[in-house]
Amino acid sequence: MVTASKPYEERWSLEQVDECVQLWKLSFEQTDKLLEFKTRVADIDHWKNDPFEVVRFLVEFKFDLKTTERKFRASIQWRIDNGADTILEDYTPPALYNYFPLGVLEGADRDNDPIYIERSGAADTLALLHRFGKDEMIKQAIWAKELMTRGPWQQEQWRHGRVKYFTTILDLKGLNRHHMNPSLVPVGQAVTRLVQDNYPGFGKKILVVRAPYIFRFVWNIFKHFVDPNVKELIEIATEKETEEILEQYMDLSVLPKEIAPSKGQGTSVQGYETIWEGGPLPPTSKDDWNRRAPVFPQQQQNPAQEQPITTVQQSTSNAEVEVSLAKIPSIKANMSGSTCGASVSITSSTDEWERLPQPALSKKNIQQAWTVTPSPVYNLDEVWRQDRLDDMSQLWGLTQRQQQDMQELRNRIQDIHHWKNDPYEVVRYYVEFKGDLDRSEHAFRKMIVWRVENRMDNFLQQYGEPDPLFLHMPMCILRGTDKDGDPIFLDRIGACDYTSLLKHFGQDGVTDYVTFVRELNSCRPFWKPYEFHVLKQQRVRSYTVIIDLEGLTPAHARPALLTLLNRTSRIAHYYSGWAKRILIIRAPPIFRLVWGLVKGYFAVHVRDMIEFAGHHSYQVLLDKYIEREVLPFVICPEGKGGPMPGYYEDVKLEGGPIPREAFDRVPTTVSFRQSASPTTFDKSLAKGAFVCQSAPMAPTSTWDDDDSEDPHSPVAARRLLIGTWEADEGARNTYERSDSITTYTLTKG
Known about the structure:
It contains 25 helices and 21 strands. It comes from Seminavis robusta.
């Protein structure tokens, strides 16, 4: 065992807090935040609610109390849901996992901190996956992290002081194409996520050693998906550099000979029975599932034996969420948020709640202007009445069995009082997940929570009219339809000047515009003119997506663009059921290699919709689904198509570099959605740009508009509510309150 269980008061005694402050060398301000955090999580009755555990979260998240509280509560809930507190008593992996060489060493580094080694390149991970499955691999990873962070070996360590950090060595010797098998990617993704979310603050240095050449290429692609605070700890060494790098941090004799062949004599601590050389698994036999004895026998006690909490409550300015211990698909959340006088509730109560309104579309200067109109009280029975169900079933061609499934899905989500709980919306999730009711319900609930937390039902109104520069992003709905009579969405990624747009608007600005496009494309009023003139009053069901990679260059693989791809792909998860097929055309040869590496990060049901075609065969692929005359000339020489009337009609489908004169424009609008977290804006906003932000602000704040490395205003930009940028280059500026409501004006100081 690690220690005996202690009461809350003893864990947070002055002596314990003082010892924690000394160990982590906390400043007065950080100590105050530690004590304030103690008060914020006093309702959590769990052994992890201990200053030595809590401080890891605080350090990891830069003592941001709000973020840390959210992460800490989520981690406690995760431990309960996954049995992490008792996993060392009631579980050990199959003995064959000894062939995955990992463990904590008996020796320490030069700072007397423990060393953890994982020889991923020597492990036959694909064979382990095939032999035991994904769930067992993830459970083994949790067991290994628990053994690392609170195993019996720490009793010996604690005689010399508490464990603060680990030096981690990841040995990639032996890495080959089998380690990049797509079936392994979801496992790696899940393990990486659970480690980052639930075991923060343990890393001092992560040494990636004996990395093959291909790893450098792969790392440049994937490093943008790793948390920045983790990325800072990583140092990569080739085989020639390995011993030199390792010797900077430890004596090579403490390492196993498999890592340091010339000097290594190290062994693993109690609890690990690893086979350091790794290698292929023995042939399949009836003994494959034989397990070792638990690390902690059942009669022994460990800190996790304290009574766990039964609920985790998190309050934010946008919502109050109560997460039950039930499995995710049946989570019931109570949320309330004010959006222009409307409110939302996801609850089991039978009380009627106001329905969040849908935006009503009107035309103004060819662009779309959005207003929120009053909406009647949400009535589940009215929205799901039989004639609407029949019409929806006919539109989607549902069988009798599928209609029964939709009724069951309706019963499962009847606690959700939100305008999206509508058969025409819910069916998209049912179709997207191929009739799997659990996954459909899970995805639908996540979408509702996301929309409420981010006030997405008011996003189009808050965002306003997009900047004209975004018309240089060649993506739009086309005028015509595919051969099924459904719309076509074209995105010419290869022809888009993302570099200029990111420099001008920043990550948030471009992400918000992509969100605007997704929200616009999924909004009923947007489609009504199209349905009337093109579809002869039939509802839009789904559309064909064409992604044109013509013009793709190495510049599109820059870190900023990959970060943008990561952000926008996460948002796409909340717009299920709109794409029926995805045609990726004119893909360069290098894309095949990149796709082979990253496709595992896409959900299986999304991958199933994708078809590829190169420069010489793309027209054959398009001919299967679309008439050539419907396509624009930039895709097909004989094409006569173009963007649909309305917002998209001025989109420049030819793409290419944005002309410099386009940036010397008249004042325009750049707005950001209101959220619980502050939003910063890029200082390169054009003169006269209009910005909106919901965070409170002191009457006056100042900053220097210079050419510093930080592209965001460090103080005032986070506090701006409404203002007009009137600065000359290099001038000092001041926000001054111009009225008593919520308006601030940027004026030259």
